[in-house]
């Protein structure tokens, strides 16, 4: 049963972490909208989520363990695909004279959409925890 809970929370945690990383990438694009020769970056969320889940299921993340510097420390595992999503460059819909490829309209839409997905993930985690709490309290 503990494995099922862990798998359920693992998916939600991976999704939430990737949405947070994508938000950082999109924020950087927006912040550099006026920077000459800045190239807009992004990553494919679904393929990165699949890779992160495959890494965690295959145990690849446990292959890289954190350093234990004292006998009292617990061994931990570094996260896998979340450390470095495969960032790509955006192809601009319209070229600019200064070489900047940030399209503010597209960035705003992507930023808002990613924010909604992040909030939805948080709500799903909250609902899941509340459901488990209700079940545990009912079995007392």
Automatic annotation (TrEMBL):
GO terms for cellular component: bacterial-type flagellum basal body, rod. InterPro entries: Flag_bb_rod_N, FlgB. Coiled coil: none annotated. The keyword Ligase does not apply. Residues 16-39 form the Flagellar basal body rod protein N-terminal domain. One of its GO terms (biological process) is bacterial-type flagellum-dependent cell motility. Keywords: Bacterial flagellum, Cell projection, Cilium, Flagellum. It comes from the Bacteria. It is found in: Bacterial flagellum basal body. Its main location: other. Belongs to the flagella basal body rod proteins family. The basal body constitutes a major portion of the flagellar organelle and consists of a number of rings mounted on a central rod. Structural component of flagellum, the bacterial motility apparatus. Part of the rod structure of flagellar basal body. This is Flagellar basal body rod protein FlgB. The lineage of its organism: Bacteria, Pseudomonadati, Pseudomonadota, Gammaproteobacteria, Oceanospirillales.
